[in-house]
């Protein structure tokens, strides 16, 4: 009778970004950040607004990233963030409590405790009917892969906190590898490199901008980006300096982290049963997550591993789209949804 009060919400609760789909449309796509008042514990800003405050707050305010390495690190902040965003987007009724049917994605390498934290915070944020889906499965659905087919498909999802590598067949994850090396680690590598090589101190946002503007996984790009200039204080003199950065430097800075991802993919392939391995060689490997946008990454991996790599159409949204599709067709996808 009150089904008009039920709203369907799909959530990609990522370390770097949160994407919320309401009734089929992306309504929130913002950084997973909150600013909280230290003394009253009240929420001051959310998402993009909170990101603007990162590194700029005074003592009374604290800017928090509630997720680290793909999982909830600060439970209270995560709940505040979810509740805050859901308040922004859902209908309110003063007479009847609203009812949210939710699907939230979780990393495939998460522990039971970590998953419970997601479930509880979603329920406390008014989710009456909460389901979960593993991120690589959601990414595969988002890329249009038939996850229930009797065929193996490998997904490599390079997010902010984790790189998830999974082989999916018959609606389940057959091989799974999750490493805590992804976009945030690349950003940190760049900060370190700039400090060592150029004696310049830069913040997280600037390092991320370098990665986005001139980020590359190889120093031999066919279509290289122009240099990107950053300014900041010299480490020793504190005087302002301006440094132009070229893509080869970023490739050098993140080399070790990319190597770790290569090894993890090789390791996952080694653990894959032979029939599924043959499918993967035939179908290629699918890349999703923001890290898939690093220039030359697909070509580099292809060369190293000898299997073609396909990048998702919109890598940053593949997981969210898949979560939304699984929610919309929850009967069809009941095998991949769990509570
Ligand atoms: N053009 C780009 N080139 C390289 N990296 C990028 C680009 N755009 C975004 N990123 C990086 O992608 C990461 C975010 O990706 P994504 O939104 O897939 O992760 P997430 O879902 O929030 O994280 P996780 O899956 O670990 O919880 C960030 O580290 C961001 O800096």
From TrEMBL:
One of its GO terms (biological process) is regulation of cell shape. NCBIfam families: mreB (TIGR00904), PRK13927.1 (NF010539). It comes from Balneicella halophila. Its main location: cytoplasm. It holds the Pfam family MreB_Mbl. One of its GO terms (cellular component) is cytoplasm. The keyword Methyltransferase does not apply. Keywords: ATP-binding, Cell shape, Cytoplasm, Nucleotide-binding. ATP binds at residues 15-17, 160-162, 208-211, 290-293. One of its GO terms (molecular function) is ATP binding. SUPFAM superfamilies: Actin-like ATPase domain. It is found in: Cytoplasm. Forms membrane-associated dynamic filaments that are essential for cell shape determination. Acts by regulating cell wall synthesis and cell elongation, and thus cell shape. A feedback loop between cell geometry and MreB localization may maintain elongated cell shape by targeting cell wall growth to regions of negative cell wall curvature. Belongs to the FtsA/MreB family. Forms polymers. This is Cell shape-determining protein MreB. The lineage of its organism: Bacteria, Pseudomonadati, Bacteroidota, Bacteroidia, Bacteroidales. InterPro entries: ATPase_NBD (IPR043129), MreB (IPR004753), MreB_MamK-like (IPR056546).
